[in-house]
Each structure stands twice: as structure tokens, then as C-alpha cells.
Specification:
3 helices; 61% helix; mainly alpha; 72 residues
Length: 72
């Protein structure tokens, strides 16, 4: 985030809170953990798409792919 930090509240179940707590490293914030999980998910989606394309041969232009995955 740029400038002043603002926070959002995200309701989660106690079970999800426990699972997140188990993933969190000492000194790591929940914000850092969730950000890392989002990046990991994003990378997984790219890998899955690349596998699908390699299996089906359905290609899209690189510019379109970069826009889809917000790659700059």
C-alpha cells in the first residue's frame, strides 16, 4: 500500500483462524502470510494454465496473458 495504511476486517471461522495460525511463521504478520498465500495461488493458477495450454494447444497472445495475470 502507498501512503497511509488502512485496514479491512475479514470475518473468518475459528477453524480457518487456527489453520492460518499454524501456517504463520514467528514474527510474520497475518497480512504478510495472506499476501504470500495470494501470490502462491496466483503462481499456481499460471502453472495450471500453462499445463492446460501445453496439453490442449490452445494458445493466447502473450499480451492477453500478461493482462489476465496482471504481469507487467
Amino acid at each position: 500500500m502507498h501512503g497511509q495504511t488502512s485496514y479491512k476486517r475479514i470475518p473468518i471461522s475459528p477453524a480457518t483462524w487456527e489453520r492460518l495460525s499454524l501456517l504463520k511463521k514467528p514474527g510474520e504478520t497475518f497480512d504478510q502470510l495472506i499476501s504470500d498465500l495470494v501470490e502462491e495461488r496466483h503462481a499456481d493458477e499460471i502453472v495450471c494454465h500453462v499445463r492446460k495450454v501445453s496439453e490442449t494447444g490452445e494458445f493466447i497472445p502473450l499480451d492477453t496473458a500478461a493482462d489476465m495475470w496482471e504481469l507487467k
